[in-house]
């Protein structure tokens, strides 16, 4: 049984390799600092990490909302079009 449920939140618009930062368009839900996220892409594979910092319009924020374009530091190279999921603990029955 899966420990986490993945919820689609958005997609990668851009990746800045010098800064290791991904620019993400939030298409559903919201994303917060300390959330566990997963980025999946055909050439990227699967990257799972905890969000340390979120910026919207270069300002540091704790939570994004649907429609925001935000930047988050990522541990590996991600690519344009990769899908971003938030991992939520599955309810244990």
Gyration radius over CA: 13 Å
Give the total of beta strands: 8
Distance between the termini: 11 Å
What summary fits the major beta sheet?
8 strands, antiparallel
* Helix-strand category: mainly beta
Strand order of the largest sheet: 4-3-8-1-2-7-5-6
| Helix-strand string | EEEEEEEE
Average residue pLDDT: 94
Query: Which percent bin holds the helix content?
Result: under 10%
The proportion of strand residues reads over 45%
- What sort of overall outline do the alpha carbons produce when their principal axes are compared? globular
Uncertain segments are: none
Please count the helical segments.
0
Structure notes:
With 93 residues, the protein is mainly β. 0% of the residues lie in helices and 53% in strands. It contains no helices and 8 strands. The protein has an 8-stranded antiparallel beta sheet with strand order 4-3-8-1-2-7-5-6, with no helix packed on it. It is globular and about 40 Å long. The N and C termini lie close together (11 Å).
């Amino acid at each position: 049984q899966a420990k986490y449920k993945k919820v689609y939140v958005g997609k990668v618009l851009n990746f800045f390799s010098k800064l290791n930062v991904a620019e993400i368009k939030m298409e559903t839900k919201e994303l917060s600092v300390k959330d566990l996220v997963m980025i999946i892409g055909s050439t990227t594979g699967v990257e799972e990490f905890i969000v340390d910092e979120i910026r919207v319009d270069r300002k540091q924020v704790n939570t994004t909302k649907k429609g925001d374009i935000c930047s988050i530091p990522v541990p590996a190279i991600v690519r344009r079009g990769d899908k971003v999921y938030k991992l939520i603990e599955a309810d244990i029955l």
